[in-house]
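Technical note accompanying the year-one report. For the benefit of new consortium partners, we illustrate the data format agreed upon in the data management plan: each record pairs a sequence with a structure-token string. No post-processing was applied to the example shown here.
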Amino acid sequence: MRTEQEMIELILSVAKADERIRAVSMEGSRANPAVPKDQYQDYDITYYVTDITPFYNNPTWVEERFGKPLIMQMPEAMRRPDGGGHFNYMMIYPDDNRIDLTFEPKKHTDNGEPSVVLLDKDNGNGFLPILPPPSGAVYNIKPPSPLFYYSCCNNFWWCLNNVAKGIARDELPYVMNMLNEVIRAELHCMIEWYIGTQHGFDLSVGKDGKYFKRYLQPELYAQYANTYSGSNYNEIWTAVFTMCDLFHTLTLPVAEHFGFTYRQDEENGMREYLLNQKNKKAELDFIQLDEQYRKQVDDLVAEGWAGPYVISKDVLSDTRTLPGFVAITNDEPVGYVLYNIVNGECEIIVLESLREKQGIGGTLIKLVIQAAQEAGCRYIYLTTTNDNTHAIMFYQRFGFSLREVRINAMEKARRLKPQIPMTGNDDIPIAHEFEFELDLKCGVYDKHSN
């Protein structure tokens, strides 16, 4: 890995060789005296140029002078450019050095960010004024006003209701975004203010709290680390309540330090709501498919089965016209089955459970069995493909027997429905059809059906 001295010499040699580059400054962590140096720091460099045109979106020019990077990003040439007239090249090199090189046609504006002059061909009379000694004070913790303190507390507790609702609806991406973007941002504010009350406000906790570990007591940092969870909802609930406990622990000394009032009633109200939601088992209703839910089921079939047409035994079935049953929770379908009765036999055309281990699939099959018996059917049968190993095991546990294997049946099926993919679950090639049947006279079903 090239040393800092070698990198600075390269940066300056390029600038000195081109009269259009009038000055060079370095920003970021390498210019901040409060940040310890390490090998992972970027070189945030600005070239001040008399004309931006030859440097704008010209990666060839950059690569000829700095070498070919492993990867380059040019934000001004991407989907959301800043549009300020500058152009930036962000580059990572094979020796792990990273350069963020900005070409700037305008004079330097002091925004408080630490900056070091590396080269000024115009001696303070051009793009760069005489800069003050670099300081990281702009990044120091800002003490809260009463309004900011209350807003942080209220928003932290309020937004937790969205996490509870997202868990109930099985909306994992929404839950994680709400918890780790919106609510965690408020927790980070409170952590910063707490650190300020303990160590003073003339310090920075770093971007996204990267120095929390440096300033928090070990037991508090361990508690903070436990606010991160996996994707299991039980783990998420544990993380939520850990976050609540940590926020409470931190907010009281912050309020005392500034003489603010902490509204304990808001915390109590949201804790009660969270406990109610956590302990509430979502009620499942199983109903005959009707017009109220037909459109939603049609959409699910289109998404999961490239519907509305489904192939079974070389026959296309239009699922939009089939009878069925649907599992409902919070007014949303979480499972459905569509079937057809012809000539005294009942065929399950489509069966899907959107939530595992809640007995949805088994209950839906039982409802079809009841409908088939009422219609005087002797058998229920269904077809699945060789890649659907989970379903194959499920049907056999339920009491279905293998009736027929149709080798390479999917070749013909794809001629009727080209949207059928070549591979399925676990990257298994989809090639064959397995047909299972359940003899309703034997009464074998309902074994391990959940």
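Partners are asked to follow this layout when depositing records. The domain at 146-279 is CATH 1.20.120.330 (Four Helix Bundle (Hemerythrin (Met), subunit A)).
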